[in-house]
Write a structure and sequence with these properties.
Two copies of one chain form a homodimer. With about 725 residues, the first copy, chain A, is α+β, with helices and mostly antiparallel strands. In chain A, about 30% of the residues lie in helices and about 30% in strands. Chain A is built from 15 helices and 37 strands. In chain A, the strands form nine sheets. In chain A, strands 14, 15, 16, 17, 18, 19, 20, 21, 22 and 23 form a ten-stranded antiparallel β-sheet that branches. In chain A, helix 5 packs parallel to helix 7, helix 7 crosses helix 9 and helix 9 packs antiparallel against helix 10. Chain A is globular and about 80 Å long. Chains A and B meet through helix 2, strand 3 and strand 6 of A and helix 2, strand 3 and strand 6 of B.
């Protein structure tokens, strides 16, 4: 009993932030606003290039409220981003007061903030009265007065708990948020290409180029390259800048912005590159170029080391890849679109749980992707990406145990699922309709996107399960039953409809109720991961599909993520380790300093740079390239939650061919440390009810892990 | 045949604006953004006081496009409010070009503009390529490219025609719109009230107070009054200002804004007042006060003059009342909330058709009130106001013939009607649910708001008819049938369900299927106006309700509007003229310089100022007070369209006790002039097929009105 109470206290302490004054807003609104900044920052060869999906906005007038009960009067400080009023027990105060004294007793404090340009935000600090997530917010209080002055019935007004992040100081305005910066220099080696100079910053990086000692009158071109080839190819590099120096002024010709010439000139837009070629035209010059590296400050909480140096380097480069692509949000790649994509983000979330364990980053990305009703298309217009969004929430809940977030986002989940339900066919399955992008993967072969794809049904089924889970958390029992029933019905159809006895596999799709002849890996992988295939069929598809060379190979790290995960789930860690070394090691051998959007081991040289029909179209720093981070933590160290928020968890370490390994996985309680060689396993955990699962003498054993104490087990 | 062609050409020329370059945006977006400025400008005794309903926002990224076909190259100028790109035939150009040359032939020109703070807007000017309402816009083109670079299927992308107003110059930025201003002085008579001075500006006015010669160190209070009593009552006046003069600075304590002290100081917020009391505290002084009168420049196109001077004064004060309340939008009253209310606006629209005939003002107000999906409440939270919104569109179409607007707003109409349909009861009727404000009127007696109100069903029925009409215009045949059926069903229920034989009237409401005992005027009035009562029953309720003194009297000009209109529709112009003289003449006798929100002829003195339980709560300049403008044009001059846009119209002049009258009514063709005395009628019309309807020798005659030629008829 005592233990249970202790666990409860620990969960409480870990999951709920300590009460501290912080800037608050309507949940999701700040995230959507910041996301608009992120998503509208892309340029393509000097042209502004925004997303092609609906971008939402914050509510421009928000009411913040709290019922307070004070034993003595309290002086509070009030600050807001926007025009605001302060109402105490229904009576408005004069002006926009920055200090007021709250009287003794129970009172209703209501503050309305209006801001068209940036999200209405509020900050209150007093001895005990402080803005935090316990404040209620609404965009529509429906509080009218009639002729007699009587207030209306506001019983149906929808109040949410306020959203917040880490703006805990009155002067840290949410709208002023900026990533961190620090100066970086290029290497000493500078190459001269027909009078232009190519600067090498040593590795893939991101930030604002800075020109020193600009002078004269002329034009300066900057050509960015993730590869040297790209930076030297003025006509095809994906990003570039052009500035004019003229009569003591500098004109940014991409943004039409003019500034006075001074000792250093920092470019307006951030760029991703390793190389920059600088070309001058006319009578102008500069002394040197450097950069302001821009990054999200993340603490690396996870770790992994082993006897294999290549694996260690893969882990390090994976970490750097995820660091670069973890910005205001989890983005896809830092060079090309820098947009927030749901399928990409779903993988970043999983890697994040083994590296930064930054819940706020997951929540921010989820809010942004979910957008606001009305739903007018799939997330990012992609059907699969809608489903990854649901699944991402499922996973977030498992890793964080954060039920409050689930409750907050649940209405948006309902709106999106309503959209999906409105587009199902007579079989209750999803098919791509006009305007839907059925993505699946960038495959090196024909992928039929027509009819019922088994892959999409499996993701859809998992999304329905997620809805049922979240409906339960949100106390919406009717919906919980409805979604469970829909999920059960769909799950029951998967085998009869898609399983092909001859092929011993789930086929790729059905058109008009007829199975196609094609088998692809996708549905079979996810069938294993979500346990929609029973053990027998999992073993069957391992051989008939996963380890079958005649099935279309996967060439993106994106789908390799799930492919290798499903092999790990089947205990194939030794094979997977070799795959990781071949594939990610292969990129390192090609000189990768971050992992790529796509990699075809057969290709050589420049061919690796091309994609989308463009010679440098491929992103050489893509979040989904970093999956070994996840695989090593989840299936080698073997750490994962079995109940939400690591309230219960399993450590099932597998060397998979390594001589030894050690590492840590962050959890809501702190971390779980695992060290293993062929004869010993050591585990130390900061909390949660854990089980070590090991094979000893050919037998699986399950051993309780004590919290806070190192445990060593002989194998 | 020739005549028909001529009419067609005229309609075309009148209804479509001439092709001229103008700033364009996503339809409704600018209006909603400007509306947020309008609705969030209210202050209440120095406190910011925003609306209590959801306020929407513009789409932050909008694509503008046009297919062009040029016989020779053309140089165009491009300007945008926001970051933008320019794509010609799918290829993006460098930077944000302000001049480009379009090549010969057929080309696709696509421009994306992003702006978080103000609506993305575009302006293009070339010899023939110019931004106007023929440009297409979307907030979501769904134009993705796949790995091969191939563009997606965008067949389901929704494109709208661009919105615009009158920003026809590259330098007239839509976001910089401001009303006109001109200086006004107070009268020479200044009264000293305990050392404070009360300034009289001679009549109700609106604008920014300007203090001249501020000096010293101290505080200055400004108390505004629509009445002298209000300005002198520091503790109860509805609006006030407070500024501090300190060490050469002026601090606006309402807005927390500090400026340098200079010769004149203009207050930040506009106010409505006739009187201002200025009080100084501490060692500060000022030399004089004046104001910057702020107004929407409107041309008074309608006119009315007659032998009765009181009626002429009523027409003039009505005109001034409507001028003051016609701002960026049609608002309710200029003092108190200055918000945009649908029921109030519906009346302003009708008056506008007889005075300014400013279509843009109607459209702007309609866009703002309609808001954006999702619909989360009735318009302004008021059930009846949702219905007035539909009816307002019906009337706008009749007076303007503007089918393009109907097509533009139709999707928003569908969204709102969907919301209404989702809230009907088992009888297919509307009842107030929790959170709904069932308003009807500010009545001087108990109005039951429970159950099925006959008044609400009648407005709802008319809204369904409007939906059917607009569905037809929008080529949505399925919906047209659906709405017609719903309207027919509901109309068929009105008499059996609400008619009471004993009372010879429609009763006020039904609860659980049981008629109440109460008869009010509302449903009976609208039953006449919408012809839901047949001729026999119209005559019955004229006596049993309209002219029956025992039925609860109406004391707002708001409902007097429809009451008098229904009497006019029954030919009671002589009675109504007396009513107008009593009621509006009564306000003039009380010293009104604009018409009021409410008037109880019995009351005297200060009682006229109170409302909502506050001594000066009543608005003394309220749009709905100006209804004689409409009644005189519509039922005395007798001019109104019988087909959309005055393609056909009727002139049915009625002296109603006057000796003579003359006036003009603006139409899409120009105007219709009518002059009448007891022996002659003269009509001159600028276009449309018109009929003069007169009584000669006890017989009604219908005479063709020639276009463009004065016609005189002897009675």
């Amino acid at each position: 009993m005592k233990k249970k109470i202790l666990i409860f206290i620990l969960v409480f302490a870990v999951v709920l932030p300590l009460a501290a004054q912080t800037w608050i807003w309507y949940p999701g609104d700040y995230e959507i606003w910041l996301g608009n900044k992120m998503n509208n920052r892309r340029t393509d060869r000097g042209a502004y290039f925004p997303p092609f999906w609906k971008q939402d906005s914050h509510y421009v007038t928000v009411e913040f409220s709290k019922v307070i009960n004070l034993p003595m009067p309290q002086r509070i400080t009030i600050a807001a981003e926007g025009s605001y009023n302060v109402k105490l027990d229904g009576k408005m105060m004069f002006g926009m007061p920055s200090k007021i004294i709250l009287p003794v007793g129970k009172h209703h404090l209501n503050i309305k903030v209006h801001n068209q340009s940036t999200p209405p935000a509020l900050f209150i600090d007093g001895a005990t009265v402080k803005t935090d997530s316990s404040w209620k917010v609404t965009y529509e209080d429906k509080e009218w007065i009639d002729e007699s002055g009587k207030a209306s019935d506001t019983s149906t007004t929808i109040y949410m708990n306020a959203g917040s992040w880490n703006f805990n100081d009155i002067n840290s305005l949410p709208s002023a948020f900026a990533l961190e910066q620090e100066p970086q220099k290029h290497l000493q080696t500078v190459s001269d290409v027909n009078g232009s100079y190519v600067y090498d910053f040593g590795k893939e990086t991101f930030g604002y180029p800075v020109l020193k000692g600009l002078k004269g009158n002329g034009t300066i071109y900057l050509y960015y390259g993730e590869s040297k080839e790209e930076s030297e190819d003025m006509d095809h590099c994906e990003t570039l800048d052009k500035i004019e120096v003229k009569d003591g002024k500098v004109i940014d010709l991409v943004n039409n912005r003019t500034t006075d010439l001074s000792e250093t000139y920092e470019l307006d837009n951030s760029k991703a590159f390793r190389y920059i070629m600088v070309r001058t035209e006319g009578d102008c010059s500069y002394d040197d170029i450097s950069m302001q590296y821009e990054y999200m400050p993340e603490t690396v909480k996870g770790s992994f080391r082993c006897d294999d140096d290549e694996i260690n380097r893969i882990w390090d480069v994976g970490t750097y890849t995820l660091q670069l692509t973890t910005r205001e949000f989890f983005i896809d790649g830092i060079k090309r679109d820098r947009w927030v994509w749901s399928g990409d983000a779903a993988q970043s979330y999983l890697m994040n749980y083994y590296l930064f364990n930054d819940n706020d980053e997951v929540k921010r990305t989820t809010w942004l992707l979910g957008g606001k009703p009305p739903v007018t298309s799939h997330i990012n217009t992609i059907m699969d990406y809608t489903f990854y969004w649901f699944i991402g929430i499922y996973n977030y809940y498992m890793y964080s145990g954060d039920a409050s977030f689930v409750k907050q986002i649940y209405p948006r989940m309902q709106a999106l699922m309503q959209y999906v339900l409105g587009r199902t066919d007579a079989d209750g399955m999803v098919e791509g309709l006009a305007g839907d992008w059925v993505f699946v993967d960038w495959a090196d072969g024909y992928l039929d996107k027509h009819g019922q794809l088994s892959f999409e049904q499996i993701l859809y089924c998992r999304s329905l399960e997620t809805m049922a889970l979240c409906a339960k958390i949100a106390d919406d029992e009717a919906s919980q039953s409805k979604y469970n029933e829909l999920a059960d019905n769909l799950r029951a159809k998967l085998m009869p409809d898609f399983w092909n006895e001859q092929k011993q596999a789930l086929v790729h799709n059905r058109i008009n109720g007829i199975q196609s002849n094609t088998v692809t890996r996708y549905a079979n992988m996810f069938g294993i991961l979500f346990n929609y295939l029973d053990n027998e069929h999992q073993q069957i598809v391992k051989n008939s599909v996963l380890l079958n060379d005649s099935i279309l190979h996967i060439s993106t790290p994106y789908m390799r993520f799930y492919e290798l995960e499903s092999l790990c789930a089947l205990g194939q860690q030794t094979d997977v380790l070799n795959d990781i070394k071949d594939y990610w090691g292969g990129m390192l051998n090609e000189g990768a300093t971050a992992f790529w959007e796509k990699y075809n081991p057969g290709e050589k040289g420049k061919a690796h740079l091309a994609m989308y029909g463009r010679p440098y179209g491929k992103s050489l720093c893509h979040a989904w390239g970093a999956s070994p981070i996840y695989l090593l933590g989840r299936y080698y160290l073997g750490v994962h939650p079995t109940k939400p928020g690591y309230e219960e968890y399993e450590v099932k370490p597998v060397l998979g061919g390594l001589k030894w390994m050690e590492g840590s996985v962050p959890t809501p309680y702190g971390k779980i440390y695992v060290k293993m060689d062929k004869s010993n396993v050591t585990v130390k955990s900061d909390g949660g009810k854990g089980f070590l699962v090991i094979n000893r003498k050919g037998k699986q054993e399950k051993i309780d892990i004590p919290a806070g104490k190192e445990m060593a087990v002989k194998l």
